[in-house]
Specification:
Elements: E1 2-7, E2 10-15, E3 19-23, E4 32-41, E5 46-48, E6 54-64, E7 68-74, E8 79-85, E9 88-98
Antiparallel strand pairs: 1-2, 1-4, 3-9, 4-5, 4-6, 6-9, 7-8
Length: 100
């Protein structure tokens, strides 16, 4: 069984015992959180938008993603700028998927 969930403005296909890095959630490490369910499927049938479906996940830790280098340049002008960015991420483990 798998489900499609939405968190942080993105959608993820998840199964039980999957680990995910999602954009930072305001939940302490070790807490349980319910995710917004878009679809559930058992491999044969798919249930879209059922209100009784539930996906629970455990927050494992808060980390930072790898650095992304941002480089700007305008040719023949002597203009070069380098900056970096590291996104705050939350690592979660999918503990349970219940269909409607």
């Amino acid at each position: 069984m798998f489900a499609v969930v939405r968190t942080g403005g993105k959608q993820y296909k998840v199964a039980q015992k999957d680990y995910l890095e999602v954009p930072k959630m305001d939940v302490e490490a070790g807490k349980i959180v319910d995710l917004e369910v878009i679809m559930t499927s058992d491999g044969k049938t798919a249930d879209m938008g059922k209100s009784g479906a539930k996906v629970t996940a455990k927050v494992l830790e808060h980390v930072r993603a790898d650095k992304i280098v941002v480089f700007k340049k305008k040719r023949r002008q002597g203009y070069r700028r380098t900056a970096g960015h590291r996104q705050d991420m939350t690592v979660i483990e999918i503990t349970d998927i219940k269909a409607a």
